[in-house]
Amino acid sequence: MNFLAHSLISLEIDAKTNQQTLYGNFAGDFYKGSIYNLDLADDLKGGVVLHRLIDNICDRPESLTAELLRDNFRLYKGIVSDIMIDHFLAKNFQSLFGKDLDIVQSKIFQQINQYRAIFPENFIPMLNWLEAHNALKNYADLDFLERVFLGMSSRVKKGEILRNAAGEIRQNYTRLEERAIQEFFTVKEKASREFCEAS
């Protein structure tokens, strides 16, 4: 899952448990190595733990979305699945969550920016780009998504295959939409349960 999906899981957990997982979960890809050696306050490390837990669940062989993308995207099926899930969550946000995505996006960025003093250096341009492009909301737009995939295709080895991702989503839209939403709620339930049991 990508930034929006990770954030939604954290917002729910933090509201229920009074923890502070959002920052570490949102920026989790930018923290490498052992959790114990991270230069983060203990109350923020939980977010990185949650991020890795979510990623592990998403990588399971029976993932509801990756299996539909495996043949066409091989090693990049996970990347396509992650961004696609954010697309369908953003597109259906009001009906799924009964909230305004503009307001939720602002809340997410506001909370993340509280920790700007400790941002990993390579996280700063990513967050700046996400904010400048209202990306969490604009993931709902397939044309925006296509530009995201095109940008990624030039930054990763043998990434040309990602240029076909938006077209694949358009071609199988209804089936992928159903699977993506189901996958999000499956992962959210499993990750929330396992994280809270371990906390």
Automatic annotation (TrEMBL):
GO MF, any single term: [acyl-carrier-protein] phosphodiesterase activity
GO terms (BP aspect): fatty acid biosynthetic process
Keyword Heme assigned: no
Claim: Cell cycle is one of the keywords in the record: no
Superkingdom classification of source: Bacteria
Keyword annotations from UniProtKB, A to Z: Fatty acid biosynthesis, Fatty acid metabolism, Hydrolase, Lipid biosynthesis, Lipid metabolism
Pfam families: ACP_PD (PF04336)
Protein name as it appears in the record: Acyl carrier protein phosphodiesterase
Taxonomic placement: Bacteria, Pseudomonadati, Pseudomonadota, Gammaproteobacteria, Pasteurellales
